[in-house]
Amino acid sequence: MSVQVRPTYEPLNELTVLDVVKPLDFFDASEQNQLHVREIGDGNLNLVFHIESATSKKALIVKQALPYAKVVGESWPLTLDRARIESDALLKEAESVPHLVPKVLFSDSALAVTVMEDLSDHVILRKGLIEGQIYPQLAEDIGTFAAKTAFYSSDFYLHPFEKKEQVRKFSNPELCKITEDLVFTDPFFNIETNDFPAELQPDVDRIWNDKELLKEVAQLRLAFLTKAEVLLHGDLHSGSIFVKSDSTKVIDPEFAFYGPAGFDIAHFIANLALNHLSQNAHAKEPFHRDSIQSYLLQTIEKTWETYRETFTQLWNEKATDPFAKTEGVLESFLQKTFQEAIGFAGCEIIRRTIGLAHVADLDSISKREVELFYKKTALELGAKLIKNQRKLTNITELTDWIRGA
Ligand code: SR1
Ligand code: MG
Question: Which residue out of 79, 178, 233, 252 has the highest number of ligand 1 atoms within 8 Å of its CB and is therefore the one to mutate?
Answer without folding.
Answer: 178
